[in-house]
Amino acid sequence: MKRLRFKGLIPEAQVTDAKIVLNRRRALGALTGLGAGLAGGGLLAASPVKAKEGQADPSAHLYPVRVNPAYASADVAGQTYPVTPSRITAVYNNYYEFFSGFGTSKSIWKQAQALPLRPWRLEIDGMVEKPLTFEIDDLLAAMPLEERIYRHRCVETWAMTVPWSGFPLAALVKRAAPLSSAKYLRFETFNNPEVAIGQRETRYPWPYIEGLTVAEASNDLAFMATGVYGQPLPKQMGAPLRLALPWKYGFKSAKGLVRITFTDKQPVSFWEQLNRREYGFWANVNPEIPHPRWSQASEQDIGTGERRPTLPYNGYAEQVAGLYSDKTSLGDRLFR
Ligand SMILES: Nc1nc2c(c(=O)[nH]1)N[C@H]1C(S)=C(S)[C@@H](COP(=O)(O)O)O[C@H]1N2
Ligand SMILES: [Mo]
């Protein structure tokens, strides 16, 4: 097997050899599989896939939700995209809030269990008719929950396919009633260094910020994930609320959201603030525009281990290319 390197959001010194990561993941997958077989056993409580006993998620009764038939499969353009098993996606994560700086940056699921999920509020403010505050359980009850299988492409060239549960972001935009002067949504993640060890790293510009145009947020593909695999989201995957924007590189899909601000100024995202040249505002998946340090032409599926070509807009061009038809004003920033 060719030696592959995932050089991504992390400094060169912390780059982990892909083969080691994948092998470690397989070993972990076998472990959690064993745990699931021992009902009530000690290993089950430590499983990254299931919530710990006595800490059942209060939204658990909402799942599973109905499948939206338009997104019942992620297969596209003659390629198959099998759903990545939860035992893999639950232990291979990017969530810098929980990365201590030691070991691999992907192994954060244990640290993420420290995040309290209740009370949890989502604030909507800025250029809206009236600012809103939602208690998370009221929001979940008010929104039309559905399941969608989406492809996910990380800027680091790994990919997965995931059955999210949640609601279209457009439904929330409608509720927020933005003023016509609002052009962007600025998304803000929780800030709690007491539980999030990565947030004690002051060289990072916490909290995690992301942004979309109002037009992007109103596109049917833009999704607010509240669950996955027919259950509430596990903490390491962004509970209780994260974005799923499958046509953009994964860093746009911010986890642990607490605030959405409507604004007329283009938000500066967390990664953009750290490195503007490498992680721009648009970040639409494009195999033809290499990252400054590596090619984006292909990707490795973290479930199958196989490599396949990356598609423009991650295979979602039909749904979203129209958002970017004004190419003269956006230029190649579209993909950075
Ligand atoms: N708050 C927050 N959200 C985040 C990140 C992060 O570090 N912090 N990482 C992003 C990146 S780079 C990716 S690829 C996805 C990973 O989602 P997953 O761990 O559920 O696969 O989350 C995104 N959302
Ligand atoms: Mo990513």
Task: Briefly say what this structure is.
The chain is α+β, with helices and mostly antiparallel strands. It contains ten helices and twelve strands.
Topology:
Blueprint: H1 18-37, H2 42-45, H3 86-89, H4 109-112, E1 121-126, E2 132-135, H5 136-142, E3 146-153, E4 158-168, H6 169-176, E5 184-189, E6 209-213, H7 214-218, E7 223-228, E8 231-232, E9 242-244, E10 257-263, H8 270-274, E11 298-301, E12 307-309, H9 317-320, H10 327-330
Parallel strand pairs: 1-10, 4-11
Antiparallel strand pairs: 1-2, 3-4, 4-7, 5-6, 5-10, 7-8, 7-9, 11-12
Molybdenum atom is lined by residues 94, 154-156, 250-251.
Tell me what you see in this structure.
With 336 residues, the chain is α+β, with helices and mostly antiparallel strands. It has a single domain, classed as Sulfite Oxidase, Chain A, domain 2 (Alpha-Beta Complex). The strands form 2 sheets. Strands 3, 4, 7, 8, 9, 11 and 12 form a 7-stranded mixed beta sheet that branches. Molybdenum atom (MO) binds next to loops.
